[in-house]
Structures are given as structure tokens and as C-alpha cells.
Amino acid sequence: MSSFKNWAIPRTPVDKKSAHLLTLASFAIPILIWCLVSYVPFIWHPQVEITQSGGVSYFKEGSLIDKEVFQTEVDKKISENPQIDITALPQGTPSNPVYLPAPHEVVTALYTAFTTPPKRNSEPWLHESLAHSITIIAWGFFWAMLFGVPLGILAGTYNAASHLIEPFTEFFRYLPAPAFGALAVAIMGIYDAPKITIIFIGTFFQMVLIVATTTRKLNMALIEASLTLGCKGFRMIRRVVLPGILPDLYRDMRILLGWAWTYLIVAELIGTSSGITWFITQQARYKNFDNVFAAILIIGLIGLITDMVLAQIGKRLFPWHTGK
């Protein structure tokens, strides 16, 4: 019982059992709410799934009709013929809109999306679309790291570099990356290059500022000691600054990788539709929202698993930073 009291004390560590319980609850609570909304009729079922048309021309079996419209037609039938048999009236069951599938439907779609071939031979499988999206993310993030990390370290180490790099970066980071979509297509064509560019723009400028802030947190005494010993310039950055910030830099890259994923859908809409975005767009067009939810969940799962793997790798690489 005492461990539960610690939950309300600011910045007090919880025991391992409580941590596992709270982690489980963080996923269980949203799923429970989703189940309640999907399976309990009186919570939110604004439509009716028609099981019997009752002579109403536009009531088709299996179609979804708003409750108000359904009730209006039932009342109309009763007013026209007060003696009508109740079994002859339109019949239906409470239902949610097509854009909110139930959890079991999404789970089924999650499985069948990988096992069911595309409707057209020219269309890629879902796993092929995912592989293409991951490639876009990887290249965009790679180029952002290649330029963003060195600039951030320079800005965080030297005040002169900070005044040169950060003012424009601060300005540019407020510009929405998708706004450069048309320009990117005009310069680089309609295929993957503009998509990679959007991922780059969306992460690069944030990366420079975050890495600069992380670099400034390095103990100044280490830099002063290196200068006293004659270690200057890029040698100092390579042998003192970079090793000193590496654990925090690794953590920053994990966070920014998640940031890059948030630009994926917008990036893949530029030029020719491709990757997981193409799959989601196609399924939404045909109102297969169970497949849309499944694809969104896949993106979340890939991101979560990737971050968990990177976190475990970080514990192995920097055991002193985690206190183990």
C-alpha cells in the first residue's frame, strides 16, 4: 500500500511492480474506452444498421442510417397505417459510423492486410509499402543527422557559431515543412527525393537547436581543462565535447526520429503517392476504415518497437549514464 502513496509524490520513483502496472494501464485505458464506445449501444451508437427495409426504398440491408432518419421513417409508416404489424416496420441494430470500426475488426484487418494480396497486380503488398516508407524515413533522417548534428555541436560549443547558425535556424523552424512540397517537386521531380526533403526539413532545423542545447549542458570545467592541456579546435570537439554529450545526443536522436515519423504521411502525399500513405488513402477511398486503423496502428507499433530497441541499445552503449 505504501508504494501506491508514492504515486502522488512529485519525482518520487515507483517500484518495479507499480511501473509495470502503470505501463499496462496506459495502453489498457484507451483500449477499454474504444471497446465501450464500440460495443455498448447506449454510450455512442448514432446510426442504425438496417436489417429489414420495411418497404423504405433507400433502406438497404447492411446500410448505415442516422438514428433520426431511421426513426422518422418508422414514425411515418406508423402514421400512414396505425394498425401496421410491428414486424413489417423497418428494423435495425444500433451501430457506430463506418469510420469507427470495432477493435476486433481492426485486429482482423491487421492480420489480413499482410496475408491478402492486393486487388490489382500492379499494387504493392502492405509490407512492401511499409518498407518503402521506412526507406523514406531512414534517408531523410540520415541527411538531417549528417548536417544537423555537426552544426548543433558547433553552435553549442562556440558563441560565434551560435550567433551565425541559430538565428536563421530559429526563424526557419517555424516554417511548416509541407509548404515546401510544391517547390521540392519542381526541383527534384515527383518520386522519392521531394519526400525525403520534407522529412529533412521537418527534422533538420529542430535537430540543430536541440543538439546545441544539449552541447551547452556539458560541464564547462571539462572544456577549460582540455584548453589548458592544449586540446583545441576540432580535436577538442572530437575528444572532449562529443564523448561528453554522446549519451544525451543519442537520446535526442531517438526523440527526433519519432518527430520524423510525424512528417511521413504529409511527405508521401507529395508527388506520386507511395508507401503506407498510399495504402491508407486507397483504403479510405473505399471506406475500408478497419484497414485504415490497422495501418495507423502498424506505424505506431513500428515506432514504439524501434524506440524500445534503441533504448536497450543505449543502455548497453552508455551503462554509466543509466546508473547501471
Automatic annotation (TrEMBL):
Keywords: Cell membrane, Membrane, Transmembrane, Transmembrane helix, Transport. Its main location: membrane. CDD domains: TM_PBP2. Signal peptide: none annotated. SUPFAM superfamilies: MetI-like. The chain crosses the membrane at residues 21-44, 136-159, 171-190, 196-214, 256-280, 292-311. Residues 130-310 form the ABC transmembrane type-1 domain. The keyword Transport applies. It holds the Pfam family BPD_transp_1. It is found in: Cell membrane. The keyword Protein biosynthesis does not apply. It is a multi-pass membrane protein. This is ABC transmembrane type-1 domain-containing protein. It comes from Thiomicrorhabdus immobilis.
